[in-house]
Amino acid sequence: MLLNGIPNDNIPLTDRGLHYGDGLFETLAVVKGRPQLWDRHMARLARGEAALHLPSMDRSRLLLEAESLCEGCEQGVLKILVTRGSGGRGYRPPVPCDPRRILSLHPWPEIPATWYSDGIRLRVCDMRWSRNPKLAGLKHLNRLEQVLARQEWDDPGIGEGLMLDEFNSVISGTQSNLFLLRSGRLQTPDLSYSGIAGTVRELVIECAAGLDLPVDITTLTLDDLMAADSLFMTNSLWGVCPVSRLADTDYALGQIPTRLREAVAAAV
Amino acid sequence: MLLNGIPNDNIPLTDRGLHYGDGLFETLAVVKGRPQLWDRHMARLARGEAALHLPSMDRSRLLLEAESLCEGCEQGVLKILVTRGSGGRGYRPPVPCDPRRILSLHPWPEIPATWYSDGIRLRVCDMRWSRNPKLAGLKHLNRLEQVLARQEWDDPGIGEGLMLDEFNSVISGTQSNLFLLRSGRLQTPDLSYSGIAGTVRELVIECAAGLDLPVDITTLTLDDLMAADSLFMTNSLWGVCPVSRLADTDYALGQIPTRLREAVAAAV
After folding, report:
1. Which of the 8 DSSP states describes residue A170?
2. Is the ipTM of this complex over 0.90?
3. Is the pTM of this model over 0.90?
4. Terminus-to-terminus CA distance in chain B, angstroms?
């Protein structure tokens, strides 16, 4: 792990990331030493920096450090975590602040091959996403809702949990975004009030446009999901992963356009 | 600072408090070496531990460590921070987990004497509280909304900012709870969906019952606040602090029952 570019296993107890979740993170797939979708991750980080009024991290330095950490890694996961740095007791952020950056390399997670061949099973979580348009879409460090949602099940046969908002709109999985296919259209939840705008979600939306596949970014309910022809989940490590079952509804596999899967696979 | 009872300035970078805000905290006034309202703070911590499915911290050990840290401190602030401890990458909490406890002693903040004699001025923040009934009331580590609300002003003449929810209900200050007096009744926002249930808020509600002062825990709007006879804010360091002004509305001071102020002052 690198803390501000220097190998370190610890961070000062005064860091505001710890005290308030006052910071941001990105999780990137690493293939043959290279972090994937770098520009998209940096763009989301920039949106977060703007929303939190954090100074922008130097991107070329961040890339140098990332490449140095990932050197020789055939396949892994790079986590980049940025905090506002240390600050006194109290919510008010110090001005100026001295942000910290933490880069860590992790083993590639075990993703069952059957998830891609047979699809994953979903459950519906009790924990809901709260709504806040000023924080929605960002990958900030306030992630208790997803932690508690993920804590709800330990059946390894369930691949992901769906999280709704207070108004019963489906927002996302605990760690992935959601798409459905219905009558030749792609639909994905609007994330203006809740959720995290995933880099692969963004990529799927762009690829679909190139394939003349219409995409609706809209409000979706569980009924909409039940009525869909097929569902799939996306994140930066899974890529595109089809859903086999949600509650009592089975979904057809193989309906995700091959060109869409290939376009995403090529980029991830 | 004490990390798990041992003087330390650092915490492992793998701590889930840093990565997800997966933990809780308490801020206690310290007077003559003794943390105040200990039982109330521990009761709120217990509610948080239950909600996060954290094992309960040993309270007698925590008190011993707190007293040792606060020894000789005439007046100060004790912060107790509890995290789920280290865990792998990913939202899913490790089972079992090995929580960490961090105790830190801070100088007493500068609270202007005029806040008590002349009241404090309030502003209304743009940042809203999000709503989540499973997290409301708890003092967990996901505090970005309050950080960003507190970041909205730096006029030292403004003592506190009011935060509303999505439905325009007034919830609290950025770091304090709110009460209003109207026609001989005390009213304070219902915190079932947002906000932090303060220890002094709890104390005021109990004291009022003993003084035959009716208390409504209810939904309040800015119009309700404008129509109030007087307002006051509470937190564990301020105690009870009258409000002089909110936007263009001036409030009468000295309407807070002396016996209520005295009862709270005696306990804080």
Report:
1. E
2. yes
3. yes
4. 23
